[in-house]
Amino acid sequence: MDFQLSDDQRALRSGMRDLLGGVFDRDRLRAAVERDGALDRSLWRELGAAGFFALRLPEEAGGVGLGLPEAVLLFEEAGRALLPGPLVATHLAAGLVKGAAEGEAVVTAVAGGLPVAHLAEADAVLVGAEPLTGEALTGEALRAFVAAARPVRSVDPLTPLHSAPADAERAPAVSERTRADAERAPAATERTPAHAGRFRIEAALLTAAEQLGSAARTTEAAVQHAGSREQFGSAVGAFQAVKHLCADMLARTEPARAAVYAAAVTGDPVEIAAAKLLADEAAVRNARDCLQIHGGMGFTWEADVHLHLKRAWLRAASWLTGADAEELLAADLGAAGRLPRSSAAYGRPVPEAGGGG
C-alpha cells in the first residue's frame, strides 16, 4: 500500500497554493485585517470557480467528485495562507444550500454553544444537532436569527464573532427541499462512514487541516528568519537554543500531518479526534515559538506571526475542543476493554491470578 500523495494530489495542492498566492497575497491579507475581517465576495466566488467548495460533490451534481483526503489538502493550503471566512461550513453545505458550491453564498454554522463566525455576512446558517439533515436558516428566518445574536469580541481580527441565540441548537424540521438537496451532498463511503455527528466530525478534520497548514507555515517562517537575522556577527539560527526551537516545531508538524492525512483516509471519528489534538497543539505552539524566534519584532502589529497564533487559538476551540477530543479518545479506549493476558511477543502466556505454575 502506497501512503505517498499521488501525482494528481500533489498537483491539486500545488495549484491551490498558486491560486491563493495570486488572489490572497500578503497585501490582501493585510487589507482584510483593516476591514476587520469583512469577507471579499469576489475572492469567495473565485474559490467557488476553482472548485474549493464543490470538491466533494459528485460530478453529475456539478462538483469535482473527489474525496475527503483531497479536501484536506486544500484546507491545509487555506490554513497556510490564513484565508478568512467560514470555509468549512460553506464546503460542507455544498449541495445543501443554494449557491454554496459556486461560492455565491456564504454559509456559517452553529457549533454547540460556541460563537458563530461571520454571521452578519452569511447568506445561510446551518443549525440543529446534525446540520447535514437539518434546515438552513435563510431569508426572514436568518434575519431574525442575526437580530437575536449579539456581537462578541474575537481574538482573531480576521474572524468576527456573534453569540448565537439560546435555542440555536434546536433542530428545525427537515423540508422536502433539504431532503432533495441532501441526495446531492457527499455521501458516506467506506472511507467516510456514516455516523452520528458526521458534519461536526468532518468539520473538525478540515479545521485540523487548516491548523496543519498554519503550523507548517510558521515553521518555515521561523527557519527563514533564523537564517537571515544576525546577532553578534552570526545568524541567530546558529545558536543552539534557536535550533532546538525550530527542530521542535518540525517535530510537532510532521506527526500532525501523518495523523490528519490518515484520518482523512479512514474518516474514523476517533482518529479525527486524535488528529485534531495534534494539529491544534502544533499550530498553537509553533506560532508561539515562531514569535519567540522573531524576537521583539514578532510582537509588533506589522508582523504576521500574531495572526497565525490568534487564528490557531480560535480554531482550537472550534468544532471539537481539546477536552471533547480527549473524552472521545478515552471512551474509545474504555470500550476496547482489557488486553488479553498473554502475548506471543514474549513467547509464553501469563498465568491467571490464583493459578499454579
Automatic annotation (TrEMBL):
Record's keyword terms, sorted: FAD, Flavoprotein, Oxidoreductase
Domain of life: Bacteria
Residue ranges constituting the Acyl-CoA dehydrogenase/oxidase C-terminal domain according to the UniProt record: 205-323
Region annotation (Disordered) ranges: 156-193
SUPFAM superfamilies cross-referenced by the UniProt entry: Acyl-CoA dehydrogenase C-terminal domain-like, Acyl-CoA dehydrogenase NM domain-like
Gene3D superfamilies membership: Acyl-CoA dehydrogenase/oxidase, N-terminal domain, Butyryl-CoA Dehydrogenase, subunit A, domain 3
GO MF, one example: acyl-CoA dehydrogenase activity
All copies of domain Acyl-CoA dehydrogenase/oxidase N-terminal, residue ranges: 6-92
Cofactor list: FAD
Pfam families per record: Acyl-CoA_dh_1, Acyl-CoA_dh_N
Family stated for the protein in its record: Belongs to the acyl-CoA dehydrogenase family.
Protein name, per record: Acyl-CoA dehydrogenase
Species this protein is from: Streptomyces parvus
